[in-house]
Amino acid sequence: MKAILFLLIIFPLAGATLNGLFGRRLPRKIVEIIACAALLCSLLMATAAIINMGGGTFNFVLFQWFQAGDLSVAMDIHYDALAAIMALMVTFVASIIHFYSVSFMRNDTDYVRYFCYLNLFVFSMLVIALADSLVFVYLGWEGVGFCSYALIGFWYGDPVKATAGKKAFIMTRMGDIGFGVAVAVLFAHFGTFSITHINPLAATLSTGSATLLTLLFLFAAVGKSAQLPLTTWLPDAMAGPTPVSALIHAATMVTAGVYLLMRLFPVVQQSPQGMLVIAGVGAVTAFYASLSALAQRDIKRVLAYSTISQVGYMILAVGVGDMVGGMFHLLSHAFFKALLFLCAGCVIQALADEHDIFKMGNLDRHLPGVFWLMLVGALCLSAFPTLGGYFSKDRILLSTFIQPGIAYKVCWALGMSAAFLTALYTFRMFFIAFLKRPDGKKASEMHQIPRFLVIILIPLAIVALCDGLLNLPFGVGKRWLGHFLFSVPGAVVDVRASTDLFLGMGILSASLSLSGIALAWFLYRRPQEAREKGWRAVLFSAFYLDTAYRYWIVQPYRWAATLLWRQIDEKHLDANIEGFGISFNAASLMMRVWSTGRLSTYLKAFLVGLAGLLCLLVGRVTLW
Amino acid sequence: MVPYGHVLILSTILFFMGAGCALARRNLIMILVGVEIMLNAAGIGFVGASLRWGELAGQGFVLFIMAVAASEVAVGLALIIFVRRHTGSMNADKYRLLKG
Description:
The complex is a heterodimer. By secondary structure, chain A is mostly helical.
């Protein structure tokens, strides 16, 4: 088992190292084979591990990392049901995206760097999923942040894209500060970094410190998962290549924040206020982002906002203590969102880098394969009844509803409205981009895309269609995921709700989803070129959040920095130091007269000095 | 037996002659000769002192001084030849590259 888990982590790292060191000297085929084979082996190991685990949890120390006094940090693994599911999902989605990338990046000359970063990303993500020591988790946490930065700005020749990468890095770093402080606080309390040791001791925390820790970890999750108030980096992150958006900014990295909260759920659980804040952040973000998605024109930005919104549901699930629901939604979201992004990638390539959905249209005839796959993804995203997205979202909303207190009811109402909006914006995008219309694209404007790009998506689409079976609320294999995750601390297999409530909630969310799709059909079947005015402009700019940050944070900061630089540093500090240098220079000018460069002068001076010293000795004058 | 005071006077006179030579002349060879004279003046003083007190150490010092002087002359002459080839001049005051 130890060997399997070790190989699971090490294969992507080995792939990245091989390609990073020797990739430029190898033929292109070999580089691609190394990258994909590393992921396939990793997927194989993840499958083997989940088969062999047999309901147990495993703790291994891979090796000691560093040690100083009481502080001892190891590269260690805590493999439980949660980590097993996460590792399997990450390797599966990443494998498909690697294969897709081989085809997608076929005309890019910088493929070595691309595959190296992609493999490195998967390694870091697996570290987050499996690591036991929080310091080791932090290594992975920073690793995914770095790879995300490097891949968003992959086409760094374009300053807009390079800036988007920097923005993502800096904004997620803010959350990382929360993580770092939280780890320090945990160490001060328990004297250990190990999740295995911290979780059973969580009950000994006082409510105050539990709340502090919860809020700090929430802030870390908010940064990584692009929740309010740190949402704005994710839409800009769409500047990266589309497979990167699918892997990092939809399926895996943005769920790392949610995963962290689940991993430390016993700590989070100690603080009811903290839980309420988590639920509030999740619900408000889900609603806010689904509103913003409603007016976007860029197909990838629609999907980016929907990612923010769906991750909001997962955060909400953690906030209401329904870890199984959150994990279920995380899984189904990873599959259908990766599918949607990869389909969008096909569309973008077929239209020669066209992102604007209003300039698409007629794609159902030109790209029939993509049309059907995209339809599957869109139905899953809009929580069409009987699909995975429906069951998972329904379970989260039900768990929210049965929580006591008016605040949770507000969260539930926000979640419900967001569910309706999700169906609306998803099918707005789908109808505008794909349905027949007179001003749409003609067949002559289409570019050929490789068939492989579409074929590789079929397994993903099948999984996205069927992942509802993982945790059906009834029938065969009822609540399989819940039972599987039962051993994880804090997991609740079944939502404690009456059958009436359960059915009512199911019917309500199903009808909301269907009416959203229907409304989209009426509004956007014959789309008008929309102008960004009035409420549309507000939604298009995501409630001017970016502008607000620019005015209230970036501008004052820049102003203060310029003040320090121009006034304090240049006019005072630098001027003083320069004056010091100038006075030395002037003093040395007086001494220069002595330095004639003539040997005889020096000899004379030497002898005079010697004579002077001898005279002093004769006179018994002591100099010191 | 020559009194030690006379030896010291001879040594002092020789030393100042050597110093005068090193200072007054511009020719590098002559400067080197002046330095040699100064060294040997000091040697005479040592030999005289060795005789006066019956100590062998003074003569030993002179041997060391001779060895040092010989090696110094060897290095000095090599430098002079190199400098001469380089600049075509033996005048010490012409070498002013070190002037800041």
